[in-house]
UniProtKB/TrEMBL annotation:
Chain intervals for the UniProt region annotation (Disordered): 112-144
Pfam families named in the record: RF-1 (PF00472)
Domain Prokaryotic-type class I peptide chain release factors: 25-41
Basic residues bias (residue ranges): 112-121
Xref: InterPro entries: Pep_chain_release_fac_I
Record's protein name: Ribosome-associated protein
Basic and acidic residues bias spans: 122-135
Amino acid sequence: MGSDALEITPTLAIPETELVERFVRASGAGGQNVNKVSTAVELRFDLAGSPSLPEPVRERLLAKRDRRITDEGVLVIDAQRFRTQDRNRQDARERLAAFIATGLTAPKKRIATKPSRAAKARRLDAKRGRGEIKRGRSSKGVID
């Protein structure tokens, strides 16, 4: 039907043999056509067992805890946005490529910072001020 690999980047491509497509009937509006034509696409890609993905990318994608990833590590993408099977198939592949692309870059390490001395002093002054306001509301110091 299409090319023999789904290109993510110039250096990373997923072979057609690793993608499993199933065509099912779409839900929702569409009249009689939706009841008789299987235009929706269910694209499955085995993240955990794919030899095409580099190990760090695989780990980052599996760690995402995305609801589309099964317990076995298979990513399932349902595409039924369009009326034609070919366009839904293309949409599913684009979404798979976008998902894999998010795992290509490693997140930056967070550098722990401490509040400055001035920031601590401002915070404590604000707390002290609020306490004074609240203490002023009590009826202890009020003389009638």
